[in-house]
Write a structure and sequence with these properties.
The complex is a heterodimer. By secondary structure, chain A is mostly beta strands. In chain A, 0% of the residues lie in helices and 50% in strands. Chain A contains no helices and eleven strands. Chain A is globular. Chain B is built from no helices and twelve strands.
C-alpha cells in the first residue's frame, strides 16, 4: 500500500512564475490537507479538501494560492506569480474517516 | 485559541540515556494528540497518537507518550536513545475533520 506521494520533490521557480505541486493520497483516503513549513518552523495549515470540495481554507493566503482535489487525479496546490517568500517545504497529508493524517515527503520550493 | 508549545528548541543527549520531549497544548475540544518525527529533507513519520483510553500510549521505535489532561501535556519519552533517533520531533493536536496544530519542533542531537 503506497503512502502519500508528492511531486515534484524539488521545484525551482523564478519570481513571477507559477508553481504546481501535486499530491496523491494514500489508497482509500479521501481527505487531503496541505501544510507549509518555513525554515526552523513547524507546519502551518493551509487548506483541507475532500473530493471536489474545499472544506477549510482558513490558512490559505488570500491571493495567488489555490487548491483543488478533483474527482479523478491528484490534489493540486497552485501558486501563481511566486515571490521569494513562497520558498518553503509544502507537505500534503491524507486521512481516512477523518482520523490520523499521514504525510507525504514534501515538495521543496525555491524561488529565485 | 488552539496552539501547541514545545518549550525545548534543541536537546542534546548521550546515546543510551533517557529522553523526554515536552509538549503542552491548548485546544477547545477533546484533543487528538500526535507525535511525528522528521529527518532532514524528509516528510513526517507518525510515532504515536492518543485518541482516548489509556493515557500512556506506545509508539514505534520504542517511544511512548503520556497524556495528562490536568496539565494539558503530552510528553514523549524513550528509555534509551539510539544515534538513529537524531531528528526533529513535532507534537500536534487536532480533532476529526479539522486541521492539525503543530508545535515548532524540538531538534534532538545524540552524542555517541
Amino acid at each position: 500500500n503506497a503512502g502519500v506521494m508528492q511531486n515534484p520533490r524539488h521545484l525551482v521557480r523564478r519570481r513571477g512564475q507559477e508553481a504546481r505541486l501535486r499530491c496523491s493520497p494514500m489508497k482509500g483516503h479521501s481527505h487531503v490537507y496541505w501544510y507549509r513549513q518555513l525554515p526552523e518552523e513547524g507546519l502551518k495549515f493551509m487548506v483541507y479538501l475532500q473530493k471536489e470540495n474545499i472544506i477549510d481554507e482558513s490558512g490559505m493566503p488570500k491571493e495567488r494560492f489555490s487548491a483543488e482535489f478533483p474527482k479523478e487525479g491528484p490534489s493540486i496546490l497552485r501558486i501563481q506569480q511566486v515571490v521569494r517568500g513562497d520558498s518553503a517545504a509544502y507537505f500534503c497529508a491524507s486521512s481516512n474517516q477523518q482520523e490520523t493524517q499521514y504525510f507525504g515527503p514534501g515538495t521543496r520550493l525555491l524561488v529565485l | 485559541a488552539q496552539s501547541v508549545t514545545q518549550p525545548d528548541i534543541h536537546i542534546t543527549v548521550s546515546e543510551g540515556a533517557s529522553l523526554e520531549l515536552r509538549c503542552n497544548y491548548s485546544y477547545g475540544a477533546t484533543p487528538y494528540l500526535f507525535w511525528y518525527v522528521q529527518s532532514p529533507g524528509q516528510g513526517l513519520q507518525l510515532l504515536l497518537k492518543y485518541f482516548s483510553g489509556d493515557t500512556l500510549v506506545q509508539g514505534i521505535k520504542g517511544f511512548e507518550a503520556e497524556f495528562k489532561r490536568s496539565q494539558s501535556s503530552f510528553n514523549l519519552r524513550k528509555p534509551s536513545v539510539h544515534w538513529s533517533d537524531a531528528a526533529e520531533y513535532f507534537c500536534a493536536v487536532g480533532s476529526p475533520g479539522n486541521q492539525f496544530y503543530f508545535g515548532t519542533g524540538t531538534s534532538l542531537t545524540v552524542i555517541p
